[in-house]
Amino acid sequence: MGTLAVALGVTLTGCGEDTLSLPSADDVAEEVTGEPAPEGGQSAEGSLPGLPGAEEGRAQLGELTVAEEGSMAGYSRDEFPHWQSTDGCTARQHVLVRDGTGVETDDNCQPQAGEWYSAFDGETLTAASEVDIDHIVPLAAAWRSGADSWDEETRRAFANDLENPQLIAVSASSNRSKGDQTPADWQPMESYWCEYGLAWTSVKHTYELTVTDEEFDALTEMLDTCA
């Protein structure tokens, strides 16, 4: 699995003393998706980078390996180093800019103003401190479905992935409610089922992670809500 991070093309660097000014939301979105950011933050189709269409998502789901969940033995969040710095800003800060509206930052890339719509529960947040950056596929869930065999480079790429639909700005309360649960046990509000199911499926497909029977059934139900 060590070659997976290289194949994904994720470039991560350590934090240095010199930092660059934070790019605009349009610049960040265009860098990671190849397209300008949708006006007003997340669109009805979802602004997560690399989000597949419904047909592609269903095809990806059919290609996933169904297996029982693995053990949590040896798991620690420290096994997935984050948040790493890219272009002088952390992955968390990049997502705050990408997913926010009217975001203003200081010289250290930290947002000082803006609004963030939490697609998990419909809340609108007006302070970065109220926003969590959720891993669509939680680190612990990844560990139980194959990440326990990865090397540190691949785990770091997974935890800081700005190129695939793995990171999203949401309310702290919804992120805590989700925890490390899969779609078999936790789903966002129903209006976001399609995008969430597509994102979860895409991430598991990209990183060659397994799904359980119950998880597969829940994802099938969620993707059935896609137009």
Helix segment count? 9
* Strand residue content: 5-15%
> Helix content range of the residues, please?
25-40%
Low-confidence stretches: 1-46
Instruction: Give the SSE string.
Output: HHHEEHEEEEHHEHHH
Shape: globular
Structural class: alpha+beta
Describe the strand arrangement of the main beta sheet, using strand numbers.
3-4-5
Distance between the termini: 34 Å
CA radius of gyration: 17 Å
- Count all strands and give the number: 7
Summarize the structure.
The protein has 227 residues and is an alpha+beta fold.
Provide an overview of this structure.
- The chain has 227 residues and is α+β, with helices and mostly antiparallel strands.
- The protein has helices at 4-8, 25-33, 54-63, 91-99, 139-144, 152-159, 172-178, 193-206, 213-223, and strands at 85-86, 89-90, 100-105, 111-117, 124-125, 131-135, 167-171.
- The chain has one domain (4-223).
- 35% of the residues lie in helices and 13% in strands.
- The strands form three sheets. Strands 3-4-5 form a three-stranded antiparallel beta sheet, with helices on one face.
- A hairpin with a 5-residue loop joins β3 and β4.
- α3 crosses α8 and α8 (193-206) packs across α9 (213-223).
- The chain starts with a helix and ends with a helix.
- 42% of the residues are buried.
